[in-house]
Amino acid sequence: MDDKDQTKAAAIWTLKTVLINSLKLLHPYMPFLTEEIFCNLQDEEESIMISSWPEYKEEWNFDTEEHAVETIKEAVRGIRNVRTSMNVPPSKKAKVYVVSENQEILDIFEHSKVFFATLGYASEVYLQKDKNGIADDAVSAVIHQAVIYMPFAELVDIEKEVERLKKEEERLGKELARVEGMLNNEKFVSKAPAAKIEEEKAKLEKYAQMMDQVKERLSQLS
Amino acid sequence: MKELEKTYNPSGIEGKLYEKWLDKKYFHAEPNKDKKPFTIIMPPPNITGQLHMGHALDNAMQDILIRYKRMQGFEALWQPGTDHAAIATEVKVIESLKKQGIEKEELGREGFLEKCWDWRKDYGGRIINQLHKLGSSADWDRERFTMDEGCSAAVQEVFIRLYEKGYIYKGSRIVNWCPVCQTSISDAEVLHEDQNGFFWHINYPIVGEEGRFVEIATTRPETLLGDTAVAVNPEDERYQDLIGKMLELPLTGRQIPVVADSYVDKEFGTGCVKITPAHDPNDFEVGKRHDLPEINVMNDDATINLPGSKYHGMERYEARKTIVKDLEELGLLVKVAPHAHAVGIHDRCKTTVEPLVKQQWFVKMEEMAKPAIEALKSGELKFVPERFDKTYLHWLDNIRDWCISRQLWWGHRIPAYYCDQCGEIIVSKEIPTVCPKCGGTHLTQDEDTLDTWFSSALWPFSTLGWPEKTEDLEYFYPTDVLVTGYDIIFFWVIRMVFSGIEQTGKLPFHTVLMHGLVRDSEGRKMSKSLGNGIDPLEVIEKYGADALRMTLITGNAPGNDMRFYWERVEASRNFANKVWNASRFIMMNIEKAPDAKAALSELTIVDKWILSKANTLAKDVTENLDKYELGIALQKVYDFIWEEFCDWYIEMVKPRLWMIRIRQKRLPSGR
Taking burial as the number of CB atoms within 10 A of a residue's CB, which of A78, B279, B336, B589 is the most buried? Predict the structure, then answer.
């Protein structure tokens, strides 16, 4: 952890530098906000409105690093999408495997492990050239020149999930019985307004679909 | 390191910071040999004005450009001021006097003008204070007024120069007359409104040929009283034998000739057109060509002026009815056909304009329009967006002489004097005591004042000291960009361009940045009568000036109308909160300024990434601003701060900041 410590100053310097430059670019649009922050943020200049406009500096042009971090961001977005679609809370960490035949890509992740792990909710990050050691049911996110894997069982607590799904199955079963009962009741069908009947029919369809999904997930888990 | 307040509270900081800026004279510009000048002249708001969304947008755009250039190291001057707004103010003052039971005429000219100046003192500064609230960084030390001493001197100078050059003349001309405001108005102040009217077809008997008639059609039968001819096309075979014959003009006992003039369209109606030189601009021209008399049958209040006739003193529409009825009784009314046509109305009071022949002062436009056209064609003058080139050229290609005299008191009085004895006209700065022609000593100044746009046309150089050769003028003129709404290209932009070229030999600015209207959320124009206007000051009070400025610029492309949504103001305020909170977070995590050199050698990949991104952003935003793409530039800054910087970079560096903290906390127990 010590090697990271040394970069704290760099982080602080960058935070401050980029914030000041952003405030300057924003100043013509939002003069008050930017002035108030600027004056509290630094002591060297007395007003942002007479400070100098940020200019392009060749020495701040880091193409390689830009490209690398964009790759990491893509991976993080992929992981987050998968987790969102599976309803995984951020507190639940999982192993993350980055698989790529391209050594450059793996190097990028190697250099960025710490923040990649944080942003990608990883308990551990593994970098490898093939799928060795990755379970077949692992969930994947594909990015440019690499695939990210997360073991399914780590994302989901199978026992709890099965329990939840069974409850859901029971609830949907009741709802379906109720709607079917209504729609099979001739009295209801002949008397109820057409809109109400349509509404119930739509519910029937929705519940049936949800039931299918629940059953499929259950079969996957058992 | 200081700390920011816990929450962003615009009303708590805006007033305080604006005071600081004023105190420190940050807005002030002075000629400075070490810097390049960048100048914007503020379209002077009317002293009758109340800040509305249009002003807010207009001024936000100018302030963005001027702040940008100031930071870039230019000596940036935003030259502010107010406009005396001749007719608008006169109407306001008359209204307020009426409430006190006082008529303008009772006070007399001097008394009334005193009331106008009082009114200006009481209310004229209101809009300037409102512009302060918006954060406008104009050089208020240089605030000018179109009727202050310097600007009035410039007006006189230009009038005299143009008069001596033969470009200003007095002439009997048909003018647009407003019978309610009792003044002539320029073409640009006339709105054309489609109305459902009628064509009254009337027979004029041919003299000496019993039972033979010429049928004409008119939308304004009352003007018949002033007819002095009927015209046909010289190539119209139907009427060859009529040319030169005389007609009985019904209801008047007068006889009028049939003339041939190619202005008449053979295909339109019967091909016979009644000619009323005193009451129609086209007929006026025909009359001049055929040397026809001009019979003025209407008073200034649009009642009929025909002593000895039963119509004398009737209101124009009452006369119309009576005349139609009388023609019908005479069997001369052929038919009445519904006819939708454009009617000219006064943009200010919505009264139907009456073309009348009047003695007025005019500016000859033909020669001065030429270099103004050339300036655009050569690329020396640019419109952003370019599509407004067409509007500009269309106006200039069709320009007519500019009627500059107004029958008002509040304004620059025309510096022309008449000799009571011989009628000689003397145009001069000083009041002449002796007529140079006859030696008469009774001289009377022209009663009229100048069109309000006459002084605003000189605004880019009159405000900088012209006609004196001042250091300011030398340094700041020509100005750079003019920011204005597309609705005043003709009124103002064109007149500044030709006045600048004529008086200073230079274009007053190289770029005209246009903006559209701010409409309500349903796309309707904000107006008093609809009650859908949104007060910018209310927005500022609720969300802050910054949020309002951001809302007006976001997604706003030059020259396009935009819609105002409260939701967008909220989104802008949310962005301000985001910036505030991120800054606060950063400030809480940096104890002291780190050593830049040491830090630079330790930059990690993400530091370099965000620096590189910020670097590109600075380049892009600069390029966009140089192309006046204010909305695009803002969007880029917004996306960068919100997404790249806050959502990604800050999250990425948190572990680096916090590991240290954790370590530091653990140290004591470890010992």
Answer: B279
In a domain, B650, yes or no: yes
Handedness of CA B297, B302, B307, B309 (dihedral sign): positive
Does B216 reside within a domain? yes
B545 within 8 A of B60, measured Cβ to Cβ: no
Cross-chain residue pair A33–B619, CB shorter than 8 Å: no
Q: In what order do the strands lie in the sheet with B402-403?
A: B183-185, B168-178, B354-363, B402-403
- Are B541 and B484 in a shared domain? yes
A16 closest CB neighbour out of B590, B605, B608: B590
**A46 vs B: CB within 8 A:** yes
Report the residue of chain B nearest A48, measured CA to CA.
B71
In a domain, B404, yes or no: no
Distance from C-alpha of B26 to C-alpha of B407, rounded to nearest angstrom: 43
User: Is the minimum CB–CB distance between A189 and chain B shorter than 8 Å?
Assistant: no
Q: What are phi and psi of A192, to 5 degrees?
A: -65, 150
CB contact under 8 Å between B576 and A33, yes or no, is yes
Please give, rounded to a whole number of angstroms, the shortest distance from the CA of B100 to a CA of chain A: 44
Compare all CA atoms of chain B with the CA of A77 and give the residue at the minimum distance. Answer: B648
Low-confidence ranges of chain B (pLDDT < 50): 663-671
Token look-up 């893509």 returns A74
Sign of CA dihedral B658, B663, B665, B666: positive
Instruction: Note whether B118 and B261 are same-domain residues.
Output: no
User: Cβ B637–A36 below 8 Å, yes or no?
Assistant: no
Instruction: Spell out the domains of chain A, with CATH numbers in brackets.
Output: 2-60 (no CATH), 63-155 (3.30.2320.20), 158-221 (1.10.287)
CATH number at residue B258: 3.90.740.10
CA distance B643 to B650: 10
Where residue A136 falls among pLDDT bands split at 50, 70, 90? confident
Cβ of residue A136 closer than 8 Å to a chain B Cβ: no
Distance separating alpha carbons of residues B135 and B63, to the nearest angstrom: 8
Tell me how far apart the alpha carbons of residues A19 and B580 are, in angstroms, rounded to a whole number.
11
Q: Rounded to an integer, what distance in angstroms lies between the CA atom of residue A202 and that of residue B128?
A: 61
Determine which of A47-51, A164-168, B327-331, B471-475 has the lowest per-residue pLDDT on average.
A164-168
Q: How does pLDDT run across B449-473, given as a tens digit for each residue? A: 999 999 999 999 999 999 999 999 9
Residue B571 has which token pair? Answer: 């989104």
- Among B637, B648, B661, pick the best mutation site for testing chain A contact (most A Cβ within 10 A): B637
Q: What is the DSSP letter of B256?
A: E
Same domain, B535 and B660: no
Q: What's the rounded Cα separation, in Å, for the pair A190 and B283?
A: 78
* Among A7, A25, A66, A76, the residue to mutate for chain B (most B Cβ within 10 A): A25
Q: What is the pLDDT of residue A5?
A: 53
Structural domain range at position B654: 593-670
DSSP E strands: which ranges in A77-172? 94-99, 122-128, 139-143, 146-150
Contact B611 A115 (CB under 8 A): no
Interfacial A residues in 7-26 facing B (CB < 8 Å): 7-19, 21-26
Q: Which of B21, B587, B615 sits opposite A56 (nearest CB)?
A: B615
pLDDT at A145: 85
Same domain assignment for residues B223 and B74: no
What confidence tens digit (pLDDT) does each residue in B357-384 have?
888 899 999 999 999 999 999 999 999 9
pLDDT in tens, A79-116: 998 888 888 888 889 999 999 999 999 999 998 888 89
Judgement on whether residues B337 and B236 belong to the same structural domain of the protein: yes
d(CA B553, CA B330): 66
Contact, A128 vs A138, CB < 8 A? no
* Global ipTM: 0.82
- Report the 10 Å Cβ neighbour count for A107: 13
